[in-house]
Specification:
about 75% helix, capsid protein, 3 helices, single chain, Methane Monooxygenase Hydroxylase, Chain G, domain 1, virion, about 90 residues, mainly alpha
Length: about 90
């Protein structure tokens, strides 16, 4: 039986790391907000700040390697999106 092995390149690993850090940050944020006392809050908040820093560092590294390309959006698309969400906001009012 042939083994189905997939080789992960550096970009794949960094993408998985970034996704994992985003998820961990969201979970830690909830934990921070629901801590039962101030001491625990401070400890978990420090961990949250470390995760935030690592997430940002990972993102910046990916950008520097060209794996996370940010391109400016054209004005017409921005205008259409603004109109779409403005209409939705008006419906909620």
């Amino acid at each position: 039986m042939a083994e189905n092995k997939k080789a992960y390149c550096e970009q794949d690993v960094m993408t998985e790391l970034l996704v994992s850090l985003k998820h961990l940050k969201a979970l830690t944020n909830t934990f921070t907000q629901e801590c039962s006392n101030e001491l625990l809050y401070k400890e978990i908040d420090a961990i949250y700040q470390q995760i935030s820093t690592e997430q940002r560092n990972t993102f910046e590294l990916m950008k520097s390697k060209g794996w996370y390309v940010m391109e400016p959006e054209k004005g017409t698309k921005l205008s259409k999106t603004y109109t779409k969400f403005s209409n939705k906001e008006a419906e909620l009012s």
